[in-house]
């Protein structure tokens, strides 16, 4: 199972949840979000390391190096940083 590290906060594992955001929610991290559908950008975080795959086609466009936690799943161990 891919490990998810949140810089300065801790880590958890991804265990087949719908999205990275769902996995972080389940593990008790207080993550920012609003729409959960790729529209608002509230869940944007910086991807420090690792690979992710989009599981929905977001309307909101992130800058390079940033991801929407509601719209991706980890493909490898990853580290993210809240912005
Ligand atoms: S929660 Fe709105 S884009 Fe992720």
TrEMBL record:
<keyword id="KW-0411">Iron-sulfur</keyword>
<dbReference type="InterPro" id="IPR001041">
    <property type="entry name" value="2Fe-2S_ferredoxin-type"/>
</dbReference>
<keyword id="KW-0813">Transport</keyword>
<feature type="domain" description="2Fe-2S ferredoxin-type">
    <location>
        <begin position="2"/>
        <end position="83"/>
    </location>
</feature>
<comment type="similarity">
    <text>Belongs to the 2Fe2S plant-type ferredoxin family.</text>
</comment>
<dbReference type="InterPro" id="IPR012675">
    <property type="entry name" value="Beta-grasp_dom_sf"/>
</dbReference>
<dbReference type="InterPro" id="IPR036010">
    <property type="entry name" value="2Fe-2S_ferredoxin-like_sf"/>
</dbReference>
<dbReference type="GO" id="GO:0046872">
    <property type="term" value="F:metal ion binding"/>
</dbReference>
<protein>
    <submittedName>
        <fullName>2Fe-2S iron-sulfur cluster binding domain-containing protein</fullName>
    </submittedName>
</protein>
<dbReference type="Pfam" id="PF00111">
    <property type="entry name" value="Fer2"/>
</dbReference>
<keyword id="KW-0479">Metal-binding</keyword>
<dbReference type="InterPro" id="IPR006058">
    <property type="entry name" value="2Fe2S_fd_BS"/>
</dbReference>
<keyword id="KW-0249">Electron transport</keyword>
<dbReference type="GO" id="GO:0051537">
    <property type="term" value="F:2 iron, 2 sulfur cluster binding"/>
</dbReference>
<keyword id="KW-0001">2Fe-2S</keyword>
<keyword id="KW-0408">Iron</keyword>
């Amino acid at each position: 199972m891919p490990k998810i590290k949140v810089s300065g906060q801790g880590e958890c594992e991804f265990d087949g949840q719908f999205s990275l955001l769902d996995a972080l929610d389940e593990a008790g991290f207080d993550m920012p979000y609003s729409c959960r559908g790729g529209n608002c950008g509230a869940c944007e975080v910086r991807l420090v390391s690792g690979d992710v795959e989009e599981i929905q086609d977001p309307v909101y466009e992130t800058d390079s190096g940033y991801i929407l936690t509601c719209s991706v799943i980890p493909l490898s161990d990853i580290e993210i940083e809240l912005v």
